[in-house]
Amino acid sequence: MDHRLTILPVAISWTLALGQTLLYALLAPLLAGWVRKLKALLQNRRGAPIWQPYRDLYKLFGKEARMAHTASPLFRAAPYIVFVATWLAACAVPLIAVDLPTAAVADVIVIAGLLALGRFFLALAAMDVGTAFGGMGASREMFVSALAEPAMLLAVFTLAMTAHSTNLATVIDHQLVSMDLLRPSFMFALAGLVLVAIAETGRIPVDNPATHLELTMIHEAMILEYSGRHLALIEWAGQLKLMLYGTLLANVFFPWGIARTIDLSGLAFALGAIVLKLAALGVALAAGETVLAKMRVFRIPAFLNLALLFGLLGLLSHVILEVGT
Amino acid sequence: MVPQLTTHWPMTLAELAVGLALTSAGVSLFAGRAPHVLRHLAMPLFGLAGLAALAAGLGALLHPVPLTATLPLGLPWLPWQLRLDALAGFFLCTVGSVSVAIGLYGPAYLRGFEQGRDSLAPLGAFTGLFLTGMLLVVLADGAFLFMVAWELMSLSSYFLVAFHHEQAANRRAAFLYLLMAHVGGLAILLGFGILAAFGHGFSFAAMRAAHLPVGWASVAFALAFIGFGMKAGLVPLHAWLPEAHPAAPSHISALMSGVMLKVAVYGFIRFVFELIGQLHWQWGVAVLAIGSLSALMGVLYAMMQTDLKRLLAYSSVENLGIVFIALGLALIYFGTDHVLLGTLAFVAALYHALNHALFKGLLFLGAGAIAHSAHEPDLEQMGGLLRRMPWTGLFFLLGCIAIAALPPFNGFVSEWLTFQAALQAWQLHSGVLRSVVPVAAAVLALTGALVAATFVKVYGVAFLGQARSRHVRRARSVPRGMRAGQGLLAALCLVLGVFPTWSIGIIDAVPRQLLGAGLPQAAAHGWLWLTPISPQTASYGAPLVTVALAVALALGFWLFGRGIRRARRCDAWDCGFAPPTPSMQYTATAFAQPIRRVFAMLFRIEESVTLQDDGKLRHVVQVTDRTWNLFYLPIARVIEVAARHITRLQSGHVRTYLGWSLATLLVLLWIIA
User: Do B138 and B95 contact (CB within 8 A), yes or no?
Assistant: First the structure.
């Protein structure tokens, strides 16, 4: 967008945006491995090394993909669409620098839309083979997301109304300038977004990423029929989604460290900061997953209604208490 | 005279469209003798009428100078005047684009009816009259012609709903439709009555010039909201819609759901935003509340349906709810003098109305293709249709993505605009309004997510998996014309999603002419960036998102998909259980179960397990609309009781009747004097 392009030469900013995009794809498996390792340690296991997810992806990409006789072309295309949509959504969340053109391409509503696009195709692919597990997974995933998505939008709307923008870069910039982070509306939005992030990335207590018990699965039930490179893409997309929500929480609510101007030292500092922030979030996630038990499916609405309520309270406390003051 | 001719062409085209639609109705009368007239003459004429309307509408939008004409009909002191301004032009485009698709689709689709017992003459004739009515409503420049055209539209569509009249359910649906259409029509008539009383004339020009006191303006608004809202299927006045729309043949359902509901939106906009001549935020709150209720209830009921066309009809209730949410926001912002924000919400409403016409038309045509090829209305009997009808499957998928408001399709753009309008609520001064608007945004977000779930259900159950019945297994691809009709609408959905700056640049003429304000910033930063208010506030680079999606997908296929032919086929894994059979698949009812359970208090659910004669257990779940018991049956009971009292006047003697008539006449004369 031109107001940004006057600040930065076009080529540099787009190169940096592309670099950030690649960084997402490269770092996402590491975050997943870190959480897994921490969980293992907390549960008195030794656990796999933290780069195990890279090895898994490499192995899966090399393996032959198999498809059921009943699978349609949609089944084959879905992993690509899921991965690309999730990845694109991730690129629009500022990771190390605020002033990047990718953040102007997609605002936070577009990010939610892209995530929904990926979910839409994943749920369709789950129903494609015609197994009962696939249908069950799709039904539950859409049910969870039907409640989680509005909660996420509400939490984000609170921020957007504060910063007068749905553009994440502007929101983070506004946070950095005003440094007014202890507002009641923000606390509600943060609480809501944490609950949504847990539900959307399929973590305990909503879903269990490690389960293969048929009746407790949501996400795993959907991807049961996938193998080889298809499975690799879907796994990778899942890791990207985890990192996206982690970055969203880390950079919007704790924006310290992110580079506002583009120079090498600033970027290096920003990279260090986001790695530390994500590592800390990983510790919190692993600890939470160790302490909590998975809920029954029909307890999930109560959990997500709480998130929805937090979002609504955040929005209302903003428009009633904070506007005009 | 030459310059006048060159600038007057949109009106000439609009008149041509009306003429072609009437001709299409006329030639259909011969279809009783020669059924193929419909296929070879009436439907192509219908499509041409749509094309002419589309061109006329585009012309009016691109050269926004209001054009007028007078029809050689009407009463001597009340001529039928036509007026084509940007608003009428926009809705002509909406009517036209769907009609063109139906003109392509109809010939092949109607072939399936030629073997039937029903005479095709009424079908074709009333289809033509239906289009004529809709075009004239949009073009009318006076309450008289407006009401005549409105009734023409309502009555001809009544006969189309009753086309399959051998089934009692359809006759009942048609009667209910007729009843509701007339109650609504009466409200609109009374609304016009108020305006005409203050404007001293039935022409819209007189009404525009009139100045109403706030009280009467509010009464007129309420009447218009009831009348047009009933036609638009807003909750709680929607109960006729899911009965009537599915009963008609599918191309008519597409016209009714896709286009006729938009004509109601047109009427509402014309009446409230132009003719009343004042906008109050209190009205906006009412519209916002009813719109939110319609959106949420519409999608929840859609989720519960297993009949494909009924589901689509309920989804129309939901989409019209979204349109009215945006219109409510526009009223609130205009009522509080936030002109730019009001314009944004107004454009969002128009954009969503057009989008809904396109994707709902597409989905109904898809449902028609399934009915044509598989002879099955029930989702629970479908399955695996994507492999049997790949083109319909592809187009239907695009329609599902569009209606689920997923980028980069058109549904997403209009919902995005609505969200942007709602998120500017911080600019309002009243604390109450500031908290009402975000709640509506929350409802819209919940609705959007539920729509995605609903259309995963529809597509997953109908097109994916395995066929659940024998006749669905025998389904074959539909003829080329039917595919072309669906393809056209699917392409329009994509174009309107990828190039929103262009389409909004064109639509912008409507608020500029009607309300005197546009969205100057929307495309000010190049055609790549949609920035409704300012680039700092929000931007959406739809073409960039599309290109990035396409490039990344192509790259992905190239990198990893090289082994496409190598993907080996095997039995489904399914956790190592026996290979699944079609009856083991998740059904539509099962898919909706979690949501049915969470929102149970909003439905009337009857669940029963019975032991059948053959020893099998039968589990029946029936979800019915609560508004029937809460709203309709009490009214019906009151009317019945009142009617029983009134029958006492019924003596059977002509003398008494004459006496009553005389008394009435005297009372009326006394009132007038």
Answer: yes
Distance from CA of B404 to the nearest CA of A (A): 9
Beta-carbon neighbour count of residue B434 at 10 Å?
A: 21
8-state DSSP, B513: H
pTM of this structure: 0.94
Contact A323 B426 (CB under 8 A): yes
CA distance B232 to B224: 12
Q: Do the beta carbons of residue B254 and residue B127 sit within 8 Å?
A: no
Whether the CB-CB separation of B331 and B472 falls below 8 Å is answered with no
- Kindly list the residues from chain A whose CB atom is less than 8 angstroms away from the CB atom of residue B575: 133, 212, 214, 224
Residue B362 near residue B493 (C-beta atoms within 8 A): yes
Q: Are B597 and B482 in contact (CB under 8 A)?
A: no
Q: Where are the domains of chain B?
A: 337-554, 626-672
Phi-psi map region of A30: left, alpha, beta (phi>0 left; psi -120 to 50 alpha): alpha
CA angle in degrees (0–180, nearest 5) for B53-B491-B501: 80
Which residues in chain B (424-483) have CB-CB distances under 8 A to chain A?
A: 425-426, 431, 434-435, 438-439, 441-442, 445-446, 448-450, 452-453, 455-457, 459-461, 464-466
- Answer yes or no: is the ipTM higher than 0.90: yes
Alpha-carbon radius of gyration of chain B: 26
B324 touches chain A (CB under 8 A): no
How high is the mean pLDDT of chain A? 88
pLDDT at position B140 is 94
- pLDDT of the residue at A2: 44
Q: Are A88 and B539 an interchain contact pair (Cβ–Cβ within 8 Å)?
A: no
Q: Is the pLDDT of residue A3 over 50?
A: no
B274 three-class SS: helix
Q: Is A322 on the interface with B (CB under 8 A)?
A: no
Interface of A with B in 239-278 (CB under 8 A): none
Strand partners, B78: B75
Task: Give the pairing type, strands B604-611 and B568-570.
Answer: unpaired
Taking CA atoms, what residue in A is nearest to B427?
A: A323
How do residues B87-105 score in pLDDT, each as one tens digit? 999 999 999 999 999 999 9
Q: How far is CA A321 from the centre of its chain?
A: 30
Give start and end residues of each alpha helix (H) in A43-131. 52-62, 73-91, 101-105, 108-128
Cα angle at B193 between B190 and B197, to 5 degrees?
150
C-alpha–C-alpha distance, residues A193 and B423, integer Å:
18
- H/E element, B361: helix B339-374
The answer to whether B158 and B164 are in contact (CB under 8 A) is no
Whether residue A87 has pLDDT greater than 50:
yes
With CA atoms as reference, report the closest residue to B308 among B190, B158, B462, B426: B462
B-contacting residues in A 49-78 (Cβ below 8 Å): 61, 64-74, 76
